[in-house]
Amino acid sequence: MLAREMTRKEAMAVRASVAEVDHALALFGLRAILASEATSRFEQELASWLLGRILEGDPSGEIESLGDRASATLALAALKAFVPASKHVGQVGEKIERRAVLTAMIPCETQFGLTYVQKLLTADGESIVWFSKAGDHGLENICEWFSIKGTVKAHKEYHGRPETALTRCKVTSV
Q1: Which pLDDT belongs to residue 1?
Q2: Cβ neighbours for 42, distance < 8 A, ≥ 6 positions apart
Q3: pTM of the shown model
């Protein structure tokens, strides 16, 4: 009987420790988003709002209503805050393959019809952009990792961050 009570006490202590670690990691991640120049103003405002609710103890229960889109946005913002500075990938005309997370899929109406801007980020902080008529991967695939093969079309900058534009891509789930 005593051994069973110890097991329950240990389990409760472990749960409490895990909750404390989760809380500390959430605060650390949100503060990193706020301090990072790589995150957008929207991401910083969302992180600021959530940090305030956490520190206040969420008296009105608003954190529960945060939703999957906001959670995904914060997860990507934390990734951007912690990855190293971006650099260009490969040489123009070179075929490359990278494993990357889909960070945005933006539909754009052009003179050629509907085009999708698909933005990806590698674990090394490389920013990849691909313009495609095929919207194979929808918003539900944001935060998913893919293997992308393509030809380097151009090296660009977007908001001061290097981006590599790819063309003729093949994307597969990993």
Answers
A1: 47
A2: 73
A3: 0.62
Residue range 153-163, pLDDT digits in tens: 999 988 778 89
Q: How far is CA 52 from CA 20, 59, 119, in A?
A: 17, 11, 30
- Rounded to the nearest 5°, which phi and psi values hold at 21? -65, -45
**CATH architecture under which domain 95-173 falls:** Beta Barrel (2.40)
Q: How confident is the model at residue 24 (pLDDT cuts 50, 70, 90)?
A: confident
Domain boundaries, the chain: 2-82, 95-173
The H or E element containing residue 121 is strand 113-122
CB proximity list for 167: less than 8 A, separation 6 or greater? 130, 131, 150, 151, 153
Count CB neighbours of 118 within 10 A: 25
